[in-house]
Amino acid sequence: MKIIGLEYLVFGVDDLDACTNYLLDYGLAPLGNGCFEALDGSGVHLRHCDDPKLPVAMETASQLRETVYGVADEATLQSIEAEMSRDRPVTRGDDGVLRCVDDMGFALGFRITQRRTLELQSERINAPGDAGRSVNQLGASKDMPALPRSLSHVVYFVPDSVKAEAFYARLGFVCTDRFVGVGPFLRPSGTLDHHTLFLIQTPPFMKGIEHFTFHMGGPSEVMTAGTRFVEKGYQSFWGPGRHQFGSNWFWYFNSPLGCHVEYDADMDLHDESWAAREAIPGADNSQYFLFSYREKWAPGGQPPPPAQ
Predict the structure, then answer these.
(1) The domain that contains 83 carries what CATH number?
(2) Low-confidence ranges of the chain (pLDDT < 70)
(3) Nearest alpha-carbon partner for 174 in 166, 107, 269
C-alpha cells in the first residue's frame, strides 16, 4: 500500500482564536475555514470541539479528532478499503476521504495525496573538503523565511503499543527503530522518512496525541523559527537538540491544541534493507545533544544568566 505520509491533522478545540494565532505564528499559511498549510500543502485543520461534523471525541482529553494520510493512487485506497472492511466499518465521504477507526480509537482518513512537489534547496554548509554553498552565498540571514515545508510525523499515546503496531502493519507500516517497552517508530511504504508515526505506551487515561511536527529546510531553520516563536511569547518545552533515532534536529513547544508541536529537520531516510535498532528509553538514547534557549548575549556585557 503506497501510503505517502500525513496529509493533514484535524483538531476539535475550545479556543479557536488562540489555536489559529498559534498556527499562524508557527509559520503555517491560512487557507480559510480553519485550514492551515505548509509549503507542500500538508497541514492542520481546526474546528470548534462542538462541531457536529467532527469525528467522535476520544474518552480522554485529547483534542485530535482525525489523522488523514495521503496515498499514491486509487488502487491504494481500494486496497486499504478491502483490508479495513474485514473487521470494521469503512466509509468514503463526499470529500474523497476513506475513513475508519484504528484499534486504539484514533479516527483515520486516507485520500489521494494533494501535496505539491517542492523544488527548494535544503540548507547548505561549507566544510573543508566539501564546499556546499556557492561563493558569496550566505548561510543564514535575519530575514530568512524558515517556513514549515511538510507535515512530518505524529506521535500517539496508546494503551497497547503491540496491538497498535499490529494494526498499522496491516497498512504496510514497518518498524524502523524501537524503544524497548515503549513502542516503535513506524514508516509507511510510500515514504523513506525514518518515521511518520511513533507509538508510546501509556496508561489508558493518557490516550491521544503527544506531538506533531513539520519538516524544515535544515537546522538553521529550526533554530531561526524556534527563536522567533519564543520571541512571540510561546514556551519552549524541549530543545533545541538532535535525536538519535531518526537523527532529526528538533525543538518542541507547548501549544493550546492540547499537545506539543515541534519543528524538525534532516531526518534519516531508510528503505527495505534497513534493520531496525532497539534501545532502552531514556535521556542518553533520546538525543545526541540538547541545548537550552536563552536570550541573546554579546561579550563585553554582563555575563549570561545560568541556564534554568
Answers:
(1) 3.10.180.10
(2) 301, 304-308
(3) 166
